[in-house]
Amino acid sequence: MRNCFETIKSSFAGQRSISVGIFGGLARLAVLGGALALVGCKTVENSLTANDVSSMRLAGVTVSFTPDARVLWDESVRAYAASKAIPDDEIGKAMDTPEAKAYVRKMLAPRVKASVEQAMAGQLNGARPVRLDIIVKNFALPSAMQRVMVGGAREMTADANLVDAKTGAVIIAYPEMRSFLMAGQGVLGAAVQAAADSAASRAVVDQVTDRYAQDYRNWLLRRAT
């Protein structure tokens, strides 16, 4: 599994296609502060052999959440508030309810599933059916205001359990796998990031779920990044 510095490097590389010339240089400089604040990268050894992996066929992907999972995603908050006609000054309190949390998780789950399925498509072509169970613990897309005031990275932390589809037995687990993307910090960084996000072909939420899915694929298949 790649180390923290390789993760940061790949995060910058993923944004390079939407940043050109001086704009790209500013964008990378603006988000460097966020990279320095990220600590605690966790590495789990992949004990599967190449033959083990080649014998598998991905039969399904499930996405669930731990009871205390945190999802910080403004778009889902606004969607829930609109569905309930909740006024702005009551949104904060409303989002603490079980109904609101379930709504937000229901919005996020298919995005995670789609990213994982896309990343793993055509990768496991053996005879043994396996299932990948993703259990989300944290998903954060800090707002521009938060990044101006206190900083923050876009990230997802989830358990990834590869199980035998017939028996449900765990084949290999990666607990608390964390993936992140740099995001512009401070006033300048947030402004540059907003422009980069507008030019991107994928929504920010999908960029983060894509990163998690690609990181898992690369770990399972022992691919360099």
Overview of this protein structure:
- This protein has nine helices and four strands.
- It is an alpha+beta fold and 225 residues long.
- The protein has a four-stranded mixed sheet with strand order 1-2-3-4.
- β3 and β4 (170-181) form a beta hairpin.
- α2 packs across α8.
- The longest helix is centred in the middle third of the chain and has 23 residues, at 98-120.
- 30% of the residues are buried.
Feature tags:
alpha+beta, 225 residues
Unreliable sequence segments: 5-9, 11-40
Proportion of residues in extended strands: 15-25%
Counting helices, strands and paired strands, the structural category is alpha+beta
Mean pLDDT: 82
Count, helices: 9
Q: Taking Cα atoms only, what radius of gyration do you get, to the nearest Å?
A: 18 Å
Question: Total number of β-strand segments?
Answer: 4
Characterize the largest beta sheet: strand count, sense, and whether it forms a barrel: 4 strands, mixed
What's the end-to-end separation, in Å? Answer: 9 Å
Shape category: globular
* Sequence of secondary-structure elements: HHHEHHHEHEEHH
Strand order of the largest sheet: 1-2-3-4
How much helicity do the residues have?
A: 40-55%
